[in-house]
Amino acid sequence: MDKNKMKNYAELLVRSGGNVQKGQLVIIGCDVENADFGRLVQAAAYDAGASEVRMEWMDDICSRTTYLRAASEIFDSFPEWRVNKLAEQDERGAVYLHVRSSDPDALSGVDADRLRRFTKVSREATKEHTRLTMGSFLRWSIIAVPSAAWAKKVFPDLSEADAIEKMWQYLLKGARADGKNPCADWEIHKKSFEARLEYLNKKQFDALRITTGLGTDITLGLAKNHVWEGGGDVDKNGVPFFPNMPTEEIFTMPDRMRADGRVVASMPLSYQGNLIDGFEMTFTAGKVSSFRADKNESALANIIEIDEGGGRLGEVALVSNTSPIGQMNTLFYNTLFDENASSHLALGKAYPKNIQDGDKLSTEEFIAAGGNDSLVHVDFMFGTEDMCVTGIHANGTEEQFLKNGDFVI
Ligand code: ZN
Ligand code: ZN
């Protein structure tokens, strides 16, 4: 890939994504395979005025070896020093930049019980950090770059070098980062969300009915004073940022007690190195009452059964199938990209910003208002080219605003 385009992409992550300000601490998570790109991001962060940029190098292969070979009790605790490290960074108002390139199969075949146990203890230990990021007290941003294993998974028929090159092209195009001035392109992109958000936030539908040709037919109650979000975020100091690049979705939270019907996934879900495929769930009064998967049903069970909120919904997100990623008709095995190709739901925790003054509510108040709480938040795709979404008012009147996969508003 052209060095200039990579530099622009690194800059996009720093400037539009995390919106790094003068004097800030920046934390960059990056895979060792993409060290060159990680260094570009570090330089871009210093160019933007960061006072200190810490690198957190990751390695899929080392992670896998740890899951395969470490002593079993390792997976039942999360080191105190790691909690303290996060707390120190958060205290300093750090910006977190994540460069993702994980091999979707990195953890396949690893003991699912080790994964489940460690997910649980690490999520519990880092709850405060999650509260600060999901509540937009801190800014963060995620982009993706290719790794050899990931590129070969997406384009198995190409040579490794060709697969990586094609992956770069797809990722940059999907992230609207292949133009001359990606930061300016993102400002334009941001504006395109405004009219739809205004329409939906004004309507305050009581419920949505969503149907697809695959068999999804579900009614999702929406909480009173729910807020539709999309096209970026603003932190508590009023600094705008884009948590996800790409982002094509507009989303809100369903009422955790009011989902009824059947949801059939339209794409496999890559979760912790396992591909959950051919799956569906039935919801009764907000909770998964039955589920099945053709492949890796136990991984799906790990999400649903992690806690009370794991089997309830925390997000409904609508994506037009005219989005650049939707147009590529490619399965990326990566949530950041796949969730922006297609409408999706999330099992688990809801975003406080999806209800008015949600960040001022205690967890108990948030739950009482219809917000879901859980240790997990896992998006899965169920949108199709023939998806229809109808908004239902409390008095029963209906308005269809998404037809055959595209918005009619
Ligand atoms: Zn989403
Ligand atoms: Zn989500």
Would you mind describing this structure in some detail?
By secondary structure, this protein is an alpha+beta fold. The protein is 33% helix and 26% strand. The strands form 4 sheets. Strands 5, 6, 11, 12, 13, 14, 18, 19 and 20 form a 9-stranded antiparallel beta sheet that branches. It has a 5-stranded antiparallel beta sheet with strand order 7-10-15-16-17, with helices on one face. A 4-stranded parallel beta sheet has the order 2-1-3-4. A hairpin with a 2-residue loop joins β13 and β14. α1 packs across α2 and α7 packs across α8. The longest helix is centred in the N-terminal third of the chain and has 15 residues, at 3-17. The protein is globular, with a radius of gyration of 20 Å. The model has no long low-confidence stretch (mean pLDDT 95). The structure holds zinc ion (2 copies). One zinc ion binds at residues 315, 346, 377, 379.
Question: Outline of this structure?
Answer:
This protein has 409 residues and is of the alpha+beta class. The chain contains 14 helices and 20 strands.
